[in-house]
Amino acid sequence: MPPGLFIAVPAAVVGALSFGMSSNLQYRATHQVPTRRAGDPALLADLMHTRMWRLSIVLALTGFGLQVLALRFGPVMLVQPLLVCSLLFYVLLTPVLAGRRPDAVRIGGALLTLAGLVAFLLVARPTDTGGKDLTPATILPLAVGLAVLLTACLIAAATVSKRWRPLPLALATGICYGVTAGLVRSLSDRFADGFPELLYHWQLYAICVLGPFGVLLNQNTFQAGRLGSPALAIITTVDPLISIGVGLLWLDGTIAVGVAEVTGEIIALAVMALGIAVLATRAPHLVAAGQQVGDGD
C-alpha cells in the first residue's frame, strides 16, 4: 500500500464523520426556516440566522479540510467513495441525538450502500494522476455536461410532485459535489506552492462557484424531504460516482476493466442501488409511524 494512503484513508473517514454530523444539523435547520424554491440564495440567508446551521457549517468545513488532505495523498476515485461513510454515520447518529433507538432497516440500507461502494472500490482499484495537464479547453465537455445535467435536474424538481422533489435535487447536489472534488484533486499537486500560486489557476474560481451552489442545493434537498436519509443516500452515492467519471475522463484515471472486474463492479453498483432503494422505501413507513420532521430525521 502506498504510504500516502495511511493519511488519505483516515482523513477521508473522519471527514465522513464530520459530514454526517453536519448533515444531521443542516436537515433539522432547513425545517426551521421558510421554504424556498430550488437555487434561491435567500435560503442560505435564512439559515445563517440559526445557530444549528452555523455549527453545521463548522463541521462541514472541517470535513472539507480533511477531504482536501485526503485528496492530497490519495486519488479522487479512492477518497470520494470512502466519504459515503457519512451516510452510515448520519443514520447511526440521528436517532441517538433525538433520544430514539436506531431503525434496523435504515441501518441495513446504509450498510448495503456502503458495502456496494467499498466493493466497487476494491474491485475497480481506481487511480489517477491528479490531472496535471488539465486546461479549460480539455474541461469544456465537462462544463457543458454539468450545465445540461443541472438544468435538467432543476426543471425536474420544479415539475414533479412534492413527494418526488428531493430526488432530482439530491441528484443535482451529488453532481456538484463530485465535480468539485475532481477540481480540488486537479489542484492538489500545487498546494505545496502556496495559496498565491493557486490564484493563477482557473479551477480555484470554479470551485468557489460550484461548491457554494452545491451547498445551496443540498439545503433545498433537505428542506424538500420528510426524512433526510434517502436524500443523503443519493447525494453520497452520486458524488463518488461522478468523481470517478471525472477521474477517468479528465484526470488520467484508470479502473480495472477485465471481464471479472467489470462483472464485480456491476454487482457492487447493484448492491449500492439496493441500499438506496431500502432507505427510500423505508422513509414513508417512518413518517407514518410518527417520526415527523424535527425529531432528528
Automatic annotation (TrEMBL):
SUPFAM superfamilies reported for this sequence: Multidrug resistance efflux transporter EmrE (SSF103481)
Keyword Membrane: yes
Membrane-spanning residues: 6-27, 52-71, 77-97, 104-124, 139-160, 167-187, 199-218, 230-251, 257-280
UniProt entry keywords in alphabetical sequence: Membrane, Transmembrane, Transmembrane helix
KW Translocase (keyword) present: no
Protein name: DMT family transporter
